[in-house]
Amino acid sequence: MSTNPKLTEKEISPTLAAGLYTQKQLSQEQFKKIATFMEKTTGIKMPDSKRTMIQSRLANRLKVLHFNDYAQYIDYVFSSSDRANEEIVMMIDLLTTNLTHFFREKPHFDFMTATVLPHLAECEIKCPAIWSAGCSSGEEPYTLSIVMKEFMAAHRGVFTDYSILATDISSRILSKAVEGLYPLESVDKLPYDIKHKYFLKSKNPDKPYAKVKNEVRQKIQFDRLNFMDSSFNIRPKKNIIFCRNVLIYFDKPTQLDVIRKLVDCLEVGGFLFLGHSETIFGSDLPIKTVSTTVFQKIKES
Ligand SMILES: C[S@@+](CC[C@H](N)C(=O)[O-])C[C@H]1O[C@@H](n2cnc3c(N)ncnc32)[C@H](O)[C@@H]1O
Question: What does pTM read for this prediction?
Answer without folding.
Answer: 0.90
